[in-house]
Amino acid sequence: LTPPPITQTRSTCCYCGVGCGVLIDSDGTRITGIQGDPDHPANRGRLCTKGLTLPLTAQQQTGRALYPELRLNRHMPRQRVDWDTALDTVAQRFADIIQRHGPDAVALYVSGQLLTEDYYVFNKLAKGLIGTNNIDTNSRLCMSSAVAAYKLALGADGPPTCYDDLELADCVLFAGSNMAWAHPVLYRRLEAAKAADAQIKWIVVDPRRTDTAAQADLHLQIQPGTDVALFNGMLHHLIWEGLIDPAYIDAHTAGFAELKRLVRDYTPRMAAEICGVLEADLITAAEWMGRSSAALSLYCMGLNQSAHGTDKNLALINLHLATGQIGKPGAGPFSLTGQPNAMGGREVGGMANMLAAHRDITNAEHRAEVAALWGIAPAQLSPNPGLPAVALFEAVRAGQIKAIWVVCTNPVHSMPDIDKVRAALQQAEFVVVQEAYGNTDTVPFADVLLPATSWGEKSGTVTNSERRISRVRPAIAAPGEARADWQIADAVAQRLQNLLPSRPQGLFGFADAETIFNEHRSLTTDRDLDISGLDYPLLEQLGPQQWPWPSGASGGQARRYSDGVFATADGRARFHATPYRPVAEPTNSRYPFHLLTGRLRDQWHGMSRTGRVPALWAHTPQATLSMHPMDAERRGLQAGQLVKISSKRGQLILPLAFSDEVTTGTVFAAMHWNAQFLHCGGINETTLGSVDPQSAQPELKHAAVRIEAA
Ligand code: SF4
Fold first, then answer.
1. Catalyses which reaction (predicted)?
2. Closest Cα to atom 5 of ligand 1
3. Between helices 83-101 and 485-499, what is the axis angle to 10°?
4. Which one of 119, 212, 418, 433 is CB 3.0 to 4.6 Å from 446, fit for a cystine?
5. What's the average model confidence in pLDDT over 154-180?
C-alpha cells in the first residue's frame, strides 16, 4: 500500500508564551512529525523538548473528551448525549439561574490557553449578552500583577520590549524566572549572545539556585518575597552614586521625588539584611545595571505570583525609569508570559476587570465605546467589575454564584487552597466543564462535559510575550465530536439570546475564526494595541507580526515608548513608591519552612498533555520535595523517604530529595503533579488564597509549611 502523502501545516506551539512557530507534518488523519519553523521570528527553527514531542501527544486519543456528556443529578454518572441536548441544557440552566437570581449569579472561568478568537466570543457572551463581568481566567494566576504594574507605571498593558533585545542587552537581570527551564528557546538566544560576548553580565534574583542562577555571573539568593527591598536598595545605591539619568527622569516621568524619599531608608546594608544577601553583591548588581549601556530585566512568576506582585513589578520598573533603560534597543522591563495566549486574552478584555482592547469596565467612556461597537445600549454593559479568580470561586462556595462554566483549564489543580475550589464546585447548582481532556481533576465535578478541540485541530491566533500575533492552524480533524471552543460558546450564546429576550440580540452566529478576528480588530482602532490594519491575509502573507499595527501602517512596532512618550494621559511614566512587605504567610514555630513552588523543564501545567509522553518523564521521573541536606539531617530524614508537607490548609505526601539548590529553611516542590499522578492532590493543597490588592493575583509561589516523616 502507498502511504498517504505527508502535508505540512504552519502553526504555533501551544505551550509557553515564547510562542514558537512550528511546521506540523500530517498524513491527513494523524500528526506524524514536527519541526521548528525557521521563518518564525520567535524561535528561528528551534523547539524545546516539549514542543518537539507535541506529535506524540496528538496521536493519543486516550483521555480525550470525545463526546458531550450530561448527568441529570449528582448521584448519577454522566451519560453521552448529542450536542443539541448538551447545548440546550447549558443554555436553559444558565437562563433559569439568570432569571431567578440575576446575571451575576453565573460565572465563566476561562484560560490563557484559549485562542484569541475563543476568548473574544466568551467575553462577548458574558459581558454583552448575559450582562455580567464574572468572567475571569487562569491568566489571573499568571500575569495579572505584570498587567497592573504596566498600566500603573507606563499607562498601558504590554511589554515595551521585543525578543531582539535579548541579543542587544549587556546586562540581563532575571527576577523570579528560571528561564532556562520555563522559556528555553529564548534562553538559548541569551546563551548564544553571552557566549559571543564575555562582557555581558547576568544577574539572577531567585531564592533557589536554579539552572538559570547556576549560569549567572551573580546570583542574589534572596529570602522569599524580599524582591522589593532588593530593588529599593539597588535604587538607593544608583541615586547615591549618580548612576541614574536625571535628564530622562525630568523629561519623561513623574513621581520620582516621593520614590526618592522612600528609598532613602533602603540603604544597601539594610536591604541586603532583609534579603539575606551580601551588601557587596547588592551593590554589584546595582553597579552593573547602572553602568550598562542596555539593561534588560526578564521576570516571571517569582514576581507575579505574590500577594505583593504588583509592587515587585513596579519596583523593578522604577529601576528602568530611573536609569532611562527603557524604550531603546536591549533595554527595558520584559515580563515573560507563562501561557501561550495570556496576552491575546487581555487584548480582547477577557478578565473580570477589563473590556475589549485594553479598556476598563469602570470607565463609562470605555463602556460606551464597546457598546457602540457591539451595537447595544451602554446600559446593557454592567459597570461593576466582576469577581477575579479567587474571589469568584469563593462566591461559588458561598452560594452567591450558582452556575459556573470552566473552559480549557483545571482549577482543581491550579488554584491555591484547592479544597475550597472542590467545595465550591460541589456547592454550585450547575457546573459546565469544556475540555479537550476528559480526565482532569476538574472534570468529575461537571454536570455537563463539552468536548473541545486541541492543538493541531484548531484555527485562530495567539499573541506571544513580545506582542507578536501568530496564526494557529489545524493539521487534522477533531477527534470524536469535539468542537472548537468559540463554536461551543457561540452555539450556547445563540440559544441564550432566545431564552433572554430582554438582553441584546444578534450578537452571535460567527461563521469562522477569521470573522471573529475581524470583529476583534475593529474594536482596537485608536487603542494602544491597535491592530485595525492587521488581518488574516496579511498574517498569511507576512507571517507573525507585532502589535500595534494600525490601519494604513506598513509594519508592527518592535519597541514601545522609544520616543519617551508613555501611554498615560500626560505622556509621562509614573514612578511608584513601593515599601517592602513580607510574604503573606510568614513562617513560625508550627510551620517553620518556606515552601517555594515552580515548574519543571519538561512538564506543562497539570500534565494532561505532557504527562502522557514517556520521554518527558526522563528529566524528572517523579514528584519530590527538595530540602537542604542540613535541614534533613537535623530532622533525621533520609533521601527518598516519604514526608508529609502540611500547611494551615492541607497536606500531601512526597518523597524527599536532598538539594543544595534551596537554602536551609526553604523547601521546593513542582506545581505540576496532581491527583492523576500522586494518589493525592498537588502542591496547591497547601498554598493560600491571599491575593495582591491591586492585581488580585494569589501568592501561589510561597506558603509556610511543616515537614515531617509520613
Ligand atoms: Fe513551545 Fe515554549 Fe518550548 Fe517554544 S519554548 S517549543 S513555545 S514550550
1. 2 Fe(II)-[cytochrome] + nitrate + 2 H(+) = 2 Fe(III)-[cytochrome] + nitrite + H2O
2. 185
3. 50
4. 433
5. 97
3-state secondary structure of 172: strand
CB contact set of 410 (below 8 Å; sequence gap of 6+):
440, 441, 442, 605, 606, 608, 674
Q: What domains can be seen in the chain, in order of their start residue?
A: 7-58 (3.30.200.210), 69-142+341-454+484-522 (3.40.50.740), 144-336 (3.40.228.10), 593-709 (2.40.40.20)
d(CA 470, CA 634): 53
Helices (H), 375-512: 389-397, 411-414, 418-427, 485-499
| Ligand 1 pocket residues where CB is under 6 Å | 13, 15-16, 18-20, 43, 47-48, 50-51, 183-185
Neighbours of 3 (CB within 10 A): 7
Q: Which of 531, 527, 528 is nearest to 544 (CA)?
A: 531
Predicted-complex ipTM score: 1.00
**What are the pLDDT digits (tens) for 537-565?**
999 999 999 999 999 999 999 999 999 99
Distance 294 CA to ligand 1 centre (A): 26
How far is it, in rounded angstroms, from Cα 170 to Cα 166? 9
Pocket test for ligand 1, best of 14, 113, 178, 185 (most atoms within 8 A of CB): 185
Burial of 555 from C-beta contacts in 10 A (0-12 / 13-18 / 19+): exposed
